[in-house]
Amino acid sequence: MEGADLYLGWRTALLGLATLQILLLAVALLVETGNRVANRTLAALLAVLAGLLIPYAIGFAGFYDAFRWLTFAPFAIPLAVGPLLYGYAASLADGRLPPRWRAHLAPPVLQLAWFALCFLLPADLKWDWYTGGHRTFVAPLFQAMEIVSLAAYAFALRGVLRRQRTRLADQRSDDDRFSARWLGRLQAAILIGLVTQTGFWLWSLITGGIDFFQETGLYLALAALGLYLGVAGWRHGALPVPLPAPLPPVVAEPPTSSPPPDWAVVATDVDHRVREAGWWREPDLTLPRLSRLLGTNTGRLSRALNLGLGVNFSTFVNGLRAEGVAGALRADPDADLLDLAFDMGFASKASFNRAFKSRFGMAPSQYRRSVSDHDFADPEAKLRRVAL
Description:
Blueprint: H1 10-30, H2 36-59, H3 63-66, H4 81-94, H5 101-104, H6 106-119, H7 123-171, H8 180-207, H9 216-235, H10 263-277, H11 287-294, H12 298-309, H13 313-331, H14 337-343, H15 349-360, H16 364-370
């Protein structure tokens, strides 16, 4: 009722503190100078997540009992979460929002307009509508739409992640530095949120409805998710866009009478020249950069590696780096592994360990122990492993 006492309990304290921290992280992302499109989109997402927490942070304190006019205040717009997550993932990969992205914002804009119109109703009518028709018909519809939206955008994010991993492996040798792993964690976070929300929704359906306090776990989980996205997104905020936005497909040229290149021969020449010149030691070597060094174009070099050697660009370059580390270990088994890895061009310990094991079938430390064995058989003599 109007004039009810306010109460600052542990629920309000936790959710209020989380909301403040999420908003501060959103501000930090707005001033980040890296991938500005992605950072601003994530800042908008964090603001939406903070808005989802506000009704519960103030509700547990008794604000809605003390101030009934706050009913329908348009703090929470959950239908905006999915589109903003998708926009953030796409802009993190391409440096721009996906095509026709504004159309994805239509449902959350309509949801915002609905709450704003209901908020403007006279106080008595507003409360009757909130406890009557809205709670019976509109709120369940919104909840179903929110779950479907999150599921659809989680699936769409899977496509963004798959495309990004493929493009990075095809064009960069330092692909581990960029956003594919973070996008994978982002997708996992969305799925956790989706499962949590669906679980509470099913609980409400089975039991005939759950009250404000029974939803505490859902909103504490939402607060944790918002803090994770904010902190991890801020840590990745300085990453540049690793690749330009994908170009439209190239129309195939009409067939000519000249025979196609022997890609195995072309690839052998590329492999020899790259080894001799030592270009593979450049930490940020890319497909366009290597193409210029070889005096060719990216399409021809990519086909040579894929068709001639059966590997993508990242596997090719990091395989040469792994061979460089192996050669250095044979010369000096006591050398520091990480120093060797960075000297050979690896960007991280994780990428070094993965590439080395892919190339030689064993971890770098195991290889170092093996070179002291009198019966050691050098894997260099074997055909390069394929690890697409």
